[in-house]
Amino acid sequence: MEPEQELMRIGVSLPDNLLTRFDEILSKRGYSSRSEGIRDAIRSYIRYYEWSSEVEGDRIGVISMTYDHDQRGLIDALADIQHEHLDVIRSSMHFHADKKTCLEVITLHGDAEEIKRVAEGLMALKGVEHLKLTTISTIK
Ligand code: NI
């Protein structure tokens, strides 16, 4: 537990469906208030960011991502990024998940900084819905 801190009040605008899904999860997990759920979500976002900034050195990695097949220009942009990072990208697998959703899995090996640049470049593209990067150190 962190020491007690003064609470700040913020106002956040969210799309209705995002809030509905968030509330459903909070209810399943037994949260007593939305504020507590949001605090936990922000903590895990910060932990994830800090974890990813500690990823360094020679790594093998997997990027898994889903994206909207109908997003104009996206498939070309995804291919461009992968061709720009040939030195770290080892393979990719494409799975047509449903009529409009593609799942792509990319394996990588190389310097962590470049692997993260690939992941961040892909994540920034409009139409990319979920992206997860997992890496493993090659140093035993
Ligand atoms: Ni597809």
Q: What are the key terms here?
A:
Alpha-Beta Plaits; 4 strands; globular; binds nickel (II) ion
Report on this model:
The chain has 4 helices and 4 strands. By secondary structure, it is an alpha+beta fold. It has 2 domains: 37 residues; 82 residues, Alpha-Beta Plaits (2-Layer Sandwich), CATH 3.30.70.1150. A 4-stranded antiparallel beta sheet has the order 2-3-1-4, with helices on one face. Strand 2 and strand 3 form a beta hairpin. The radius of gyration is 18 Å and the shape is globular. The mean pLDDT is 91. The structure holds nickel (II) ion.
What is the CATH class of the largest domain?
Answer: Alpha Beta
Structural class, from helix and strand content?
Answer: alpha+beta
Looking at the chains present, what oligomeric state does this protein adopt? Answer: single chain
Shape: globular
The portion of residues assigned to helices is 40-55%
Strand content: 25-35%
Count every helix, treating DSSP H or I runs of 4 or more residues as helices. Answer: 4
Note the gap between the termini.
33 Å
- The CATH architecture of the largest domain can be given as 2-Layer Sandwich
Low-confidence stretches: none
Number of domains: 2
- Overall pLDDT score: 91
CATH fold call of the largest domain: Alpha-Beta Plaits
Order of helices and strands: HHEHEEHE
CATH superfamily of the largest domain: ACT-like. Chain A, domain 2
